[in-house]
Amino acid sequence: MTTIHSLGFPRIGARRELKFALESYWKGQSSRDTLLHLGAQLRQKHWADQSGLDWVPVGDFSFYDQVLDMSFTLGNLPERVQGFQGDALDNYFRVARGRSAPAADGTPDCCGGVAAGEMTKWFDTNYHYIVPEFSAATTFTLDASRLLAQLAEAAAQGVQAKPVVLGPLTYLAIGKAKDASDKLALLERLLPVYAQLLDTLAQQGVQWVQIDEPILVTELDADWQHAFNTAYHHLKAAKVKLLVATYFGQLQDNVYLAAHLPVAGLHVDAVNDREGVLPLLNLLPTHKVLSLGVVNGRNIWKTDLTAVLDWLEPLAQRLGERLWIAPSCSLLHVPVDLDSEQQLDSEVKSWLAFALQKLDELKVLGTALRQGRSAVQDALAANQAALAARRTSVRVNNPAVQTTVARISAHLGLRESPYAQRAPKQSARLKLPPYPTTSIGSFPQTAQIRQARSDFKAGRLDPAGYRAAMRQEIARSVREQEALGLDVLVHGEAERNDMVEYFGEQLEGYAFSQFGWVQSYGSRCVKPPILFGDISRPQAMTVEWIAYAQSLTRKPMKGMLTGPVTILNWSFVRDDQPRSASCKQLALAIREEVLDLEKAGVRIIQIDEAALREGLPLRKTQWKEYLDWAVESFRITANGVRDETQIHTHMCYSEFNDIIASIADMDADVITIETSRSDMELLDAFEHFQYPNEIGPGVYDIHSPNIPTQEHIVQLMQKAAERIPAERLWVNPDCGLKTRQWSEVIPALANMVAAAKTLRACT
Ligand code: GLN
Ligand code: ZN
Is residue 277 within 6 Å of ligand 1 at its C-beta? Predict the structure, then answer.
């Protein structure tokens, strides 16, 4: 009999209840008890939602982040918060969010409080975890209280609990040694605490523990492979059965290691690595459970249940009791309930499955395997019908788009001339001073702007009224920039709620959910648009706003677009064609916008690729393939313009070393990047590569309300000029200013413009 189980459930709540409860608690508007109570209610509800599973995850709920939970369970608190006298939950939030110490007059002060833990992306997802901090002196002590309390709640509810913990190797691998010491050396200290934890769980009657080791789908060197064996041999004595869970990718060369760990079971991602399952099965000792993740935990499409059964049935024959099935990974990465969606196009809706629907699919598969397909005949037929409708829908298939994509040839991605020939033509046309100043695109999204947009969406403001309100904002930002003396202006992006959603809403082939929220970090959620069909652009999306902005000034106004790779990486994407194919369609659509902007007389066009790096595959061996199509897509978008038109791109992160060749290959005339926090050191990558085009290294951190001084900006730019010839440098902030206030933006940009003048005087 096949066992069905799940690896984790979204914790934020179908209506983002946890988000609102957290934010209210943080603002001091509700009590800790209220928050704790809400947490318990959510757990209770989510376990009820998962009833029908043979094993239900417990311990996957978190008030902020499951990795931070693990740090507390292991007693690995950063030194700066040890010895805190207050409540443990408050201390937990101090690590998660940082805390500024109140100044004597009560106003918050930037210094003196507690720095937040660093946050980084959880593998290749859009979820961010708090990075565990290590040093050579790190020690561990068990605090099982959270898990024990949740187990007790689950027991009271009659839940068949399978506690979930993060495994020791992944915990070490994803953390950071602050003193550059060897993290693996800590394993010896860590293992006894894990052993103690497993004993504690065994004492509670726990039978199975899910121990997540997703680093098994990444490249591991010999030391780490060896450490895996050491660790699990050490934990072998535990009186619970361990299910080592991997997900998000392929085991590849770790397959032998994974198959032979001395544990009772292994979970693998059979969506991402179906080909890997048979080779694994041939290696797997015959006493072990094999859990196959057959329902995609990362995307929102219905599973092809019949196809999965065709594949699974022979495996079920072979494995018998040893076969478990589950979603490929925790359902944390998908929205909760499709039934909440009342406004979603019904045709598109019929193709989708959110977390609850995915659990239903799992149950259908389980029943089919146990009792035969006839027991779930109707469900299978309905599933087949929905998939067939999707395959043939005219909403999905647009022959015109398919023809254009098929006709893409190398010349689409080529500029008329190389940069060296374009640059003089652009400077003759733009007549910019040395060290030209600009900003990254957005200006403060003020309360008025948000109000106007929500009035417009609710029908309280008519389209003409909304348009007038946005024009007013654009005019204001042009006025401010003229007054500041910036050289290249932006319109300010007032009309954009989000840099992807804005374009998705205007492209054919996209749908939007009302409640399709997915946790990004802490209380923050994103609602990725759903790319379901061939992409086309029925009409221009930005030209009117930009042309209006340009009409208000003689200075060059930058056209502002989001690039195809970023739109793709921040959407739920099709599973019926490769990502690269969807990306090329997006590239062609945005290319049309670029050409329309150029036709409208716009001289500079910026195409943001904020999420290009995020899309890198987990394994380095697969990077090249991704970078090739990502860069090609950008080039298709950008490079249809004349030599005189200047293309900018922007990327807001600070790691370029390993992708610098691809960045250069994009061939944007100007790239603006985040650099202020790295003291311009990140320009080393550009210097060593002899990056040939222009660069705008960010001169101040837009995340902080601090106003950068003119001297500091001059110093930073002088450091930049040691690495990049001054005639190829621009002066700009690290990123867009939408989260700042005008009262911060104006003095900061004024100092930036003054700094540029000083620099010009010195050259
Ligand atoms: N143009 C966008 C802005 O200024 C870029 C945002 C980003 O890089 N994340 O807001
Ligand atoms: Zn940015």
Answer: no
**Residue 442 labeled ligand binder:** yes
pLDDT higher than threshold 50 for residue 112: no
Q: What DSSP string describes 488-552?
A: SB--B-TT-SSTTHHHHTTSEEEE--SS--EEEETTEEE---EEEEEEE-SS-SSHHHHHHHHHT
Any atom of ligand 1 within 6 Å of the Cβ of 441: yes
Look-up: residue for tokens 């990795």? 67
Q: Answer yes or no: is the C-beta of 733 below 6 A from any ligand 1 atom.
A: no
Centre of ligand 2 to C-alpha 629, Å, is 22
Look up the ipTM and state it: 0.99
* Ligand 1 atom 9: residue of nearest CA: 610
Segment (H or E) for 479: helix 463-484
Q: Which residues are catalytic?
A: 703
Residue 723 annotated in ligand binding: no
With bands split at pLDDT 50, 70 and 90, how would you rate the model's confidence at 116?
confident
- pLDDT above 70 covers a percentage of the chain that reads 98
Compute the distance between CA of residue 171 and CA of residue 593 in angstroms, rounded to an integer.
Answer: 45
Compute the distance from residue 498 Cα to the ligand 1 centre, in Å: 9
Radius of gyration of the chain (CA): 27
CA-nearest residue, atom 10 of ligand 1: 736
Whole-angstrom distance, CA of residue 626 vs CA of residue 567: 15
Ligand 1 contacts CB of residue 558 (under 6 A): no
Give a three-class secondary structure readout of 695-715.
Answer: EEEECCCCCCCCCCCHHHHHH
Distance (Å, whole) CA 623 – CA 680: 26
If one compares 110 and 736, the residue with the highest pLDDT of the two is 736
pLDDT tens digits along 601-637: 999 999 999 999 999 999 999 999 999 999 999 999 9
Report residue 390 as tokens.
Answer: 């999707």
The reply, when asked if residue 762 is annotated as ligand binding, is: no
